[in-house]
């Protein structure tokens, strides 16, 4: 049961990260400048430019959809991802069928397949691919009616029956239309599901607000969405992608000084929006929490977890970073200036972590006189002096 709960917690975070990434992308995308560039270019007569206001409205619709995906209950979110995976599998089946028909037209061989090894190989490969797609679709949708996903096997069946190639092209188009009609029927049968879900969610929100108030509602959403962990994972994904994009475009290994500059610039690139800045804040908070927890474990052992006060939770460092970033206008700066300012802010955060470590170590060092272990007493005292010297150097 514990493993199942952990898996559900991981899914609850992992499935919501793409919605925050979509919000981040929408915030970075300037629709007006995008269409101005199209107007200045040779694509002035592009149909995309003619629907400028539609694209502007779709930009805001994207925000709404991202928020909806972010706040969906976990079971509905899992179902939505499964439907999306099924759509991708159906598209893969369409691609397999189209490539097979194209290769058969290029070969222009209409005889029995067992007489032509290349034709037999193409047929076998396409058949195995279609069987895998149909099996995966039936497993994802949890249905035994595998024929619902096997429309793209009709061209293979027609080729097996020695149907002319021109007719196979028509059969392939029919299979594509049939699959599209299935998708439209599924969407039409579930058309009222978003409305009913929004209606029930609104009714529950009204009941919670009337009974407990807005603060309780906010705390409930905060706990259900696991906001700190969610934003931390989102920022770590951004940071990993930034590091990967840098090293994938560089052939020579970077020097030590270059690595430090790369580290700062990568962090600066990953805090250019309010969402990524919040991700950095929560990441710093968790890093500070980990450092302070290790400090307490180093000083007290397992007793530190038995008597754990409410202070020194790492939020002080995160709030410090957020306040300094807002006051200095960190998001609005260029990347180089942002990296330089981040080096100063992170220096202040490190000083705050050292101060918190001293607050943890002070009562323990004062109680060393009652300890019978002289070696451990000297060792802790030397560690305490090192912390003091580090704070003074800061």
TrEMBL record:
The chain crosses the membrane at residues 53-73, 80-97, 153-171, 177-198, 205-223, 229-247, 281-299, 319-336, 342-368. It is found in: Membrane. The keyword Metal-binding applies. GO terms for molecular function: ubiquitin protein ligase activity; zinc ion binding. GO terms for biological process: ERAD pathway; proteasome-mediated ubiquitin-dependent protein catabolic process. This is Ring finger protein 145. It comes from Molossus molossus (Pallas' mastiff bat). InterPro entries: HRD1_E3_ubiq-ligases, TRC8_N_dom. Pfam families: TRC8_N. Its main location: membrane.
């Amino acid at each position: 049961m514990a493993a199942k709960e952990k898996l559900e917690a991981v899914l609850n975070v992992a499935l919501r990260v793409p919605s925050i990434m979509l919000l981040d992308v929408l915030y970075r995308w300037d629709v007006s400048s995008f269409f101005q560039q199209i107007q200045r270019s040779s694509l002035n007569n592009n149909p995309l430019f003619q629907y400028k206001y539609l694209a502007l409205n779709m930009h805001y619709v994207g925000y709404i959809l991202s928020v909806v995906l972010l706040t969906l209950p976990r079971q509905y979110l899992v179902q939505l991802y499964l439907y999306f995976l099924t759509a991708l599998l159906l598209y893969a089946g369409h691609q397999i069928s189209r490539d097979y028909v194209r290769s058969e037209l290029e070969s222009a061989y209409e005889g029995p397949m067992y007489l032509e090894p290349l034709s037999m190989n193409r047929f076998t490969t396409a058949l195995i691919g279609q069987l895998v797609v149909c099996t995966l679709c039936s497993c994802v949708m949890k249905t035994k009616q595998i024929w619902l996903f096997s429309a793209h096997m009709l061209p293979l069946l027609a080729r097996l029956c020695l149907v002319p190639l021109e007719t196979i092209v028509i059969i392939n188009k029919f299979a594509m239309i049939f699959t599209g009609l299935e998708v439209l029927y599924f969407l039409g049968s579930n058309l009222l599901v978003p409305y009913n879900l929004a209606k029930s969610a609104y009714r529950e929100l009204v009941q919670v607000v009337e009974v407990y108030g807005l603060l309780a509602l906010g705390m409930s959403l905060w706990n259900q969405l696991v906001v700190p962990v969610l934003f931390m994972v989102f920022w770590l994904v951004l940071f990993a992608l930034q590091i990967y994009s840098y090293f994938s475009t560089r052939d020579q290994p970077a020097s030590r000084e270059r690595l430090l500059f790369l580290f700062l610039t990568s962090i600066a690139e990953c805090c250019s929006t309010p969402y990524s800045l919040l991700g950095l804040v929560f990441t710093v908070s968790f890093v500070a929490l980990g450092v302070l927890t290790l400090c307490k474990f180093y000083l007290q052992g397992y007793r530190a977890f038995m008597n754990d006060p409410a202070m020194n939770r790492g939020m002080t460092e995160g709030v410090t970073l957020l306040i300094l970033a807002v006051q200095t206008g960190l998001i609005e700066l260029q990347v180089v200036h942002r990296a330089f300012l981040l080096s100063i802010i992170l220096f202040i955060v490190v000083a705050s972590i050292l101060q918190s470590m001293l607050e943890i170590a002070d009562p323990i060092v004062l109680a060393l006189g009652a300890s019978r272990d002289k070696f451990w007493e000297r060792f802790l005292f030397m560690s305490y002096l090192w912390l003091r010297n580090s704070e003074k150097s800061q």
